[in-house]
Predict the structure.
Amino acid sequence: MTSLSGDSDHGGPSAEPQHSLVCARCGAPADGPPPTTWTCSVENGVRQYFCDRCSRENLRSIEGRLDSAWW
Ligand SMILES: [Zn+2]
């Protein structure tokens, strides 16, 4: 990358792009670490977080998938 002006502007206090955690279902953002009410499920080696709202409904489908995965 070559900037024309040459002045770097990444010295901001909160300019670092943190890994924003969002619900994998409804996309609800979570500030900071995932709340304890959220559910973390690993699918294909990828961590997916679901908010307390979605985890409720997703719990059924997750267990359902696990069952069907055995077939
Ligand atoms: Zn959600």
Summary: The first strand starts at residue 21 and ends at 22. Residues 44 and 69 are 12 Å apart (CA to CA).
